[in-house]
Amino acid sequence: MSSTATLTGIHDPSSPEYKKARRRYLKTTRNRDSHVDSEWTLFRAAEKKYKTRFPPPDLSNVLDLAALDESRVNEIGLGGWMGRRDATEWKEISPGRKAYVLPRIPGLVVLPSTVSHQEQRDLIQWSLRDHARNPNETNLDTHYIVPQDGIWNAFIRSQQPDGEDEMIHPQASSSSPPESCEALQPGPRKLISNDPASPDNFQTIATSPKVPAPPSNTVSPAPASALVHKLRWANIGWSYHWGSKQYDFSKEKVEVDPTLRGLCRRIVKSIEWTDVFRGGEATEADWGPEGPDWMHWKETYDPDAGIVNFYQTKDTLMAHVDRSEVCATSPLVSISLGNAAIFLIGGLTRDTEPTAILLRSGDVVIMSGPACRRAYHGVPRILENTLPTHLEVKEENDSEWRFYADYMQTSRINVNVRQVFPMGFNPHLHDARK
Ligand SMILES: O=C(O)CCC(=O)C(=O)O
Ligand SMILES: [Fe+2]
């Protein structure tokens, strides 16, 4: 934090919020063993640091590129959370384009302020109202009989003057044997190790059975207004099977929304890829037998899968590598909306010290190339009270946006878009050849 910034809320030791957080911290850590950290990997240590509720973590090692942008001065002070523009080494590529690469992680491109205020609102509405619904699977579907038009629309109906809060019923009958419901729990997702997908094992992946997760019979009927806060993810494009961490190619691919597809393609086209990979550390071998293909991305990049992540302020996403895509190098485009977050990205194992990046609403990250696509990454913290003012209600008569603004007060949405197959790989032909 710069010396001129005034401490507020949780950051100010004389404030009621600070005292309350301190009391809660002392209560919950009373019996905790404080000598376990020698076992932690460097990634785990960083996760712990940024997850800590009290005292609030120091963000002076967190790269905050919004600080380069004068039009974002009000936004970067929100909630008292501020990183630093010089926390790690970066280079601007294609001057004037606001695209940055980090020499420590070849293939990572950070694009702050890329999505306009209006596009941010549109994407938030799209995520909740249009996307998190049939035919796109969400985490709620395994356990609840969610209406076809999704949990958000059921919630909105319940908020109408004569509307009733709709009860959403469990999938399981109470006579089924008990099953836990990990997908509905707050906090980190369970880790499942899987072999990285590749053209060589595509056939095995495509033909291995994908057993649907059993519904929990410990969940009770819940009103739509409560369940909307338990939405965690919604699938995009090819169906993803969480149990095996593989795509289920036996299910029909849902078309990627044309607006989202267009936005991601425009972003990938706007990058001078020569500037990203010129002089990089990755060798020819890292790119696989066909060699580097970044020189074709402007023409060939076309997303066909992904996930929309919905985070409440207490949620985290543990260190992981996204290795289910058959192509291990093509750009993954990740769009941040709502409250800001700490994004950690390290190396090929959890033993590499991760770089911390503050991602704010409208910022985009591209993960591309073999080093970056196989790098461990995660989100240990959503930063409370960082919803930018352009996502709040502006006019009293902004009646529809009111619901989104309310939900977003304590939320972050991440739209994470991927391309499953490498250039020229036709899954159907591939199938026939075997
Ligand atoms: O929320 C984010 O910024 C990252 C999400 C992510 O890594 C994923 O969906 O695989
Ligand atoms: Fe990821």
Can you describe this structure in just a few lines?
By secondary structure, this protein is α+β, with helices and mostly antiparallel strands. It has helices at 16-28, 42-51, 73-76, 117-131, 150-158, 202-207, 224-227, 258-269, 273-277, 297-300, 369-373, 399-408, 427-433, and strands at residues 62-63, 91-93, 99-101, 108-111, 167-168, 222-223, 233-237, 240-241, 246-247, 305-312, 317-320, 332-338, 341-345, 355-359, 364-367, 377-382, 411-418.
Detailed description of the structure:
With 434 residues, this protein is an alpha+beta fold. Among the domains are: 1-35, no CATH class; 41-120 and 250-433, Sandwich (Jelly Rolls). It is built from 13 helices and 17 strands. It has helices at 16-28, 42-51, 73-76, 117-131, 150-158, 202-207, 224-227, 258-269, 273-277, 297-300, 369-373, 399-408, 427-433; strands at 62-63, 91-93, 99-101, 108-111, 167-168, 222-223, 233-237, 240-241, 246-247, 305-312, 317-320, 332-338, 341-345, 355-359, 364-367, 377-382, 411-418. Strands 2-3-4-15-12-17-10-7 form an 8-stranded antiparallel β-sheet.
